[in-house]
Amino acid sequence: MASSSDSPMDGAPVIDFDRFVPTRSAIAARKRKDLLMRVLVAAAFVIALVPLVSVLWTTIASGVRRLNLNFLSYNMSGVIGGRPTPSGGYGGILHAVIGTLEITLGAVAISVPIGIMCAVYLVEYAHGGPLSRIIAILVDVMSGIPSIVAGLFAFSMFSIVFGPGTINGISGSVALSLLMLPTVVKSSEEMLKIVPDDLREASLALGVTKQRTITKIVLRTSLPGIVSGVILAIARVIGETAPLLMTAGYIATTNFNLFSGQMTTLPVYVYQEYSKLSVTCPASAGADCITSIPMQRSWAAALTLIILVLILNLVGRLVARVFAVKTER
Amino acid sequence: MSLHSTATESRGADRRGDAIFKGVAYGCGILILIVLAAVTLFLLFRAWPLIGGDGKANAATVESFTGGLAHNFWQYVGPLVFGTVLVAALALGIAFFIAVGIALFISHYAPRRLAAVLNYIVDLLAAIPSVIYGLWGGLVLVPAIHPFWDWVARYFGWIPIFSGPAANPSRTVATVAVVLAVMILPIITSMSRDIFVQTPRLQEEAALALGATKWEMIKLAVLPFGRSGIVSASMLGLGRALGETMAVLMILSPGLRYSFKLLQASQSQTIAANIAAQYPEANNLGVSTLIGTGLVLFLITFLVNFLARKITRKIGA
Amino acid sequence: MGQRIDVNHLNIYYSDFLAVEDVNIAIQPNKVTAFIGPSGCGKSTVLRTLDRMHEIIPGAHVKGEVLLEGRDLYAKGVDPVAVRRDIGMVFQRANPFPTMSIRENVLAGIRLNNRRIAKSDADDLVEWALRGANLWNEVKDRLDNPGIGLSGGQQQRLCIARAVAVHPQVLLMDEPCSALDPISTLAVEDLINELKHDYTIVIVTHNMQQAARIADYTGFFNLKAVGQPGHLEYFADTTTMFNNPQNEEAERYISGRFG
């Protein structure tokens, strides 16, 4: 080889490597830095645990005091100041639970079909064309819309289309569906993408139409994943407050009609009770009049909400894990 | 004969079904475009009186909101934009290092089993509704953090942003920023973690084989690899903080100044919280003004999210 | 100058699983020692224990000793980070740091210990290391270009330059040519021949011709069956190994009857 006759090291600078030998203090400094970063990284985690534990602990500890069957089975009608109602309780969240369920179901009914079909379009039909790329980016952008803007949109739309001052449950559903839509599209898209192409080809090769292939094979295979994504999306929007404040309103009584009249939801209830701060107890009221009852109700409703959200999260994960269709890879 | 005709008939039905299904799928895709356009158009339409309407009435509305401090929409929205960006930027500043630290802890320091638990805890943090953070912030954190702010104001008060006296109760920008930081922590953490665990093993080994300590390995291999991921995660977190309503509404004592006094009350307000606070008492024109501020917020978050996604997509490519 | 390594009764475990059993080798200074053997026999694992790189896999640990000039690398209080500074490593696939320029890649190791290094010193070191890796003439005009812009063979030589720039006593190479084309392979093999004047070199290779070309000593690793621990079957100077092996298994392997 040529390299042996004239060595590449001819003319190479002579290096005195003793100068680069690390000093003992330099090595110690590096070790100290390594240890310091180790401690800081672990500390970051402990720091994040503090608020989590504090939030959960105070919600549970303060919420448990009022969270009972009476609280769950009455609404706020007939609640005066801090005095107990004839039922023996201090008002409840029945109307808010019903409102939350109806409004959220409304949002699901709007956003899930659209979201899944949009994902079908992106994965099965679009094949990365320019329109689909724009839509994919807009879905991303949509997931960043502040919830209050979604509320303003639903409010504006309803007041323009159905006349000013329209406040009802369904406009809340519209606001929430705007927030759910991108999550549903994204998770469904992911799920459709992992369906192996072999399955599609096998079905098409049998002469099955594309529509049947998608509904019977592709969607069926990815169903558990999609359901899990939808449940997690519900868990995200069920705690939304700001958009419902302006679209669904707040009343003390139970309203079953999604399409007419104000409707209270759990998060809004938490907020409204919080903003009351306290109630006054006249001297004539007995010892069972509690001035801080709004705060207690607020915490109890918050606890209910957290339990609801955690159950949804748990169910969403379980669905994905238990019903997952086993595909190779 | 009849057999043949039913076969063609059913094939015709199949084809129709196919076409309809395809049409619906396309329609839903395009609906996304329409919805975003509708959001913009309805908001613009509702906010129109601000631009096209009676200037004097607009001025009166703004004056009634601000107690005569501001006289037109831009004077009104200016301090709100300032407050929104200030609070969100502070929240990001607090959350950033902690989030990246946790992500590194999960991806490179914690044993595998502990890491799984930590992942779950991060998800749990993300799942808690914002109204509960607001409740917790208002009732637990505000009184609990006051001694700390007091201490900061006493010893660091010479730095203008910490100038005292620290407000009591601490319904201040600083406290809100802390709560928002907790709220955006999970999103930054989980995105950064996802990218950290993808660091090529070879890069990490290259660093270690040169005699790097663990931290030096992270600096040489993990952080450069994850840099754009961290940036885009932070932008998404920032977007979240910019639009957060309830926690701000429930904690902050609002003001409309261009003020950096983080520890004092009644200095700033964010757009989102301002809308929620003023909305119930606003008249028709007032609502238009608020929707105008909402449009500004929409624009800001749109830009931030768009940038974040652009960075993410660049990595993916 | 290179240093000698003595491996005594080395057992390598992944948690409870014994991966490699009772290895004893004397690796001579300033010679090239090659490890050959069928897949899964533990030759790469043994190589990695020589600079304690196997420890990055959770649960990996060893029993026995590895002596570098008589000092046990696994003695109490020995810092693996210091071990890896004295013993350089080159990997199967070239892995320059993607965000760094050619120059920064070469300096990456030295920068760990010497934060502030004079520019003239740095220039000299870069030239020295790149000449040592036989890459200087190809890249001297574009030192500030990214390292990943180079060809595969150049990248691998850049990684060698990066490894020699910290001036280790020993260079470990884990199949350094397996991802390279024949011409780049030849360039790296020439380089290994040059490098042994200054370093002790241990190389793992799948390619027996390569071992025959470049190694002074060759160790043949084998395993009795899948799931059984690997072991060092036979160790000899390369001429004996390939011409007159005194071990039946090694002869069968070399003559291509298995593996």
Offer a concise description of the structure:
Chain A has helices at about 1-5, 25-65, 70-75, 95-125, 130-140, 145-160, 170-195, 195-205, 210-235, 240-245, 265-275, 295-320.
Q: Can you walk me through this structure?
A:
Chain C: One of its GO terms (molecular function) is phosphate transmembrane transporter activity. Chain C: Residues 5-248 form the ABC transporter domain. Chain C: Its EC number is 3.6.3.27. The complex is a heterotrimer of chains A (329), B (317) and C (259). Chain A has 12 helices and no strands. By secondary structure, chain A is mainly alpha-helical. Chain A is flat. Chain A starts with a helix and ends in a 7-residue tail after the last helix. Mean pLDDT of chain A is 85; it is low at 1-5. Chain B has a single domain (27-316), classed as MetI-like fold, CATH 1.10.3720.10. The longest helix of chain B has 46 residues, at 2-47. The radius of gyration of chain B is 26 Å and the shape is flat. The mean pLDDT of chain B is 86. Chain C is built from 10 helices and 10 strands. With 259 residues, chain C is of the alpha/beta class. Chain C has a domain at 5-90 and 168-255: P-loop containing nucleotide triphosphate hydrolases (Rossmann fold, 3-Layer(aba) Sandwich), CATH 3.40.50. The radius of gyration of chain C is 18 Å and the shape is globular. Chains in contact: A-B, A-C, B-C. At the A-B interface, helix 2, helix 4, helix 5, helix 6 and helix 7 of A face helix 1, helix 4, helix 5, helix 6 and helix 7 of B.
Features:
heterotrimer; A: 329 residues; mainly alpha; MetI-like fold; 67% helix; 0% strand; flat; disordered N terminus; B: 317 residues
